[in-house]
Amino acid sequence: MGGRGSRRFARAVVATCLASGVLGVGAAAAHAADDYPWAWQGQCPIVPQAPIEEPEPAPVPAPEPGQPPAPVVEPPPPPPPVLDPVSGHLYDPRGPRPTCARNVWSIDGSIGDSWGFVLRNCTSFVSWRLHERNGMAGFDNHFRGEHWGNAANWDDVARRLGYRVDSVPAIGAVAQTDAGRVGHVAWVSDIGPGTVTIEEYNYGSAGGYGTRTVPVGDFRYLHLADVAPSPLVGSDRPVVSVPDGLGGSWTARVDDGGTLLLAAPGRPTREVGRSGAFSPVVAPALSLDHRGRPWVAATSRDGRVVVGTTHRGRLVLRAAGTSALTASPALAQSRTRRPVLATVTAEGTLVIRRLTREGRWTHPDRVGRPASWSTHSAPVLGNDATGRTWLVGVGSRGATYAQSLERGRLLRLRGPAASLTSTPALTTADDGTTRLHQVSAAGRLGVRTLDGRRWSRPTALAGEWSPYASPAVGEVSGGLHVAATDRTGAVVVTSTVPGRPSRRIRAGRDLTRAPGLVTRRGAELVVARAGSRLLARPAAARVEDLRPARPGFRP
C-alpha cells in the first residue's frame, strides 16, 4: 500500500507485530470468536509507575489535664491490588493503570508462543488461526525453511515459497500490509462487495482481539491454505449483451445497488423488477427468442432466480429456481423455441429447467453428481450452428464438462484444470464455428472448437491472464474479438484474425473485474468494464468515458 491510504493505516496501528520469541505450550481450540489460547495472559514490560504516597496520619492533640488520651485513628488500609488485563500486572487502583513500554508479553519468562512468534501479537494470532481453521499443522516461524519474522516480511516469504500473493481476498487468506513500523497481518473471516472482514490481534487494542470491515484494497492477500475460494466471481460482468441481428445489442446488468437494468438497442436503460432486490456480485443472463423478445434471468439477494420476458410492454419476472449467490444463471433458447435455464445451487448441484407450453418451469433435472460443481463459476448455455443447445460447466475440482441437451451425455473435456472463479465464454460465429474460451487455474486463456459433437483440446492464446475474471467474446465484421483481464488487472482486447496485435485498453490493479462486450450499430464493438465504466472501441483503440450523468448504462 502507498500514498494517503498507507499513512492513514500507519497512524491507526497502535501496536507492532513482532516475531521473535521461543517455543511455549499451545492450548486447545475453543469455539468463541476470540479463541486465541493466550488471550489476556502474560505480562508486558511497563512504563515505571510513580509510587503511591500513603497519607500521613493526622496529628493527635495533647489531652487536657485530667482527660483520657484521644483514641488513635488508623489510616484506612490500602485497597487490594487489581489485575490489569492488558498489561497482565497488578496495580493499585488509586493510581493510573500500567502502560506497556513495549507490546511484548511474557509467560514464566518466555515471550514466545508454540510457533516462535511473540505472544499476543498479530503474527502469533494469525499463526493460531492457520493451525486452528486452515489445517496448517506445521506452520511456524521457520515454516518450510524460511524465517517469516515480522509481519512486513510475510508477503516476500510467501512469494519465495511459491504461494499466491495478490489483491484478491479469500476466506482464510492472510491479509497483510507493510504499513507501520513492522507491518501487520490479519485473518480473513468474511468478504462482501468491495469489503473484507478480518480478525486480528494487537491492532485497536494493545495485545487484544478485534475485528474490522475495511475496503478490499487496504491489504494484499497471502493464499497459504484458503478455507474457501474467493467469492469475487468471474461471472460478475459489468454488462451482458445479445446482438439483435440488425447491428445492435440488447444489454442487461445489475448495478452496485442491486437494481436490474435492461436496454433495447439504442434505447435508454430502464429498471426491471424491484429496485435493489438483486445480487450485485453476479451478472444476469440474457437471451432473445425467435420473435426477438428479450428473456432475462437474475439472482435475488436471497438466492432466488427470477426469469421473465416482455408482456404487453412490461417485463414480468417470475421465480424459477435457486442459485448460489456467487454464480450467475445461464439462459438460452432451445430447438423447441422455448427457454432453458441452468443454475448451480449453493451446495454445488447443477440443474436445468425448461419452460413448458403452459408457461411453467419444469422440475429441476440434475446434471452430473450432486454437490460436484464450482459455486464460483457460472454455467454456460449456447447454441451451435445446427441449433443444438450446449451446456458447459466447471466441476468443483477444475474439470470442464460439456453436454448437448437434445441428445447427449456429459463429456469431460480434455485440457488443464480450469479456474474455479472464471466463467467460460461460448460463442458461435457467422461462419458456423462454435468456440469455447476459458481461463485455466494457471492463468492461461485457451480456446476450444466444436467439430460435430467433439471438442478440441484448448489452444492457448498469448499472455498471462487473471483466473478471477471471465473472458468476453464478440464478433464484428466477421472478426472475433476477445476481451479479458490480464494478470496485472488490465483489460486486453485480442483479435483472432492472424496478424492483428492485441490492444491493452487501460492498466488496472483489480484482478476480479471482468470486461463486457457490446455490439453497436455502425460495426463497432464496445468494451465495458465495471467501476470506471470504461468504454473503448477495439477497432480504433480509443478510450471513451461514456458514463451517463445519471445512473444507468447506455450502450
What keyword list fits this structure?
Methylamine Dehydrogenase, Chain H; 555 residues; 3 helices; 32% strand; six-stranded antiparallel β-sheet; mainly beta; disordered N terminus; 37 strands
Mean pLDDT: 83
Number of strands: 37
What name does the CATH topology of the domain at 240-460 carry? Methylamine Dehydrogenase, Chain H
Sequence of strands across the biggest β-sheet: 3-8-4-5-6-7
Molecular shape: elongated
Number of helices: 3
Rg on CA atoms, Å: 31 Å
- Quaternary organisation: single chain
Helix content: under 10%
What about the largest sheet?
6 strands, antiparallel
Q: First CA to last CA: what distance?
A: 35 Å
CATH architect. name of the domain at 240-460: 7 Propeller
| CATH homolog superfamily of the domain at 240-460 | YVTN repeat-like/Quinoprotein amine dehydrogenase
Q: Quick one: CATH class of the domain at 240-460? A: Mainly Beta
Based on secondary structure, the structural category is: mainly beta
Tell me what portion of residues adopts beta-strand conformation.
Answer: 25-35%
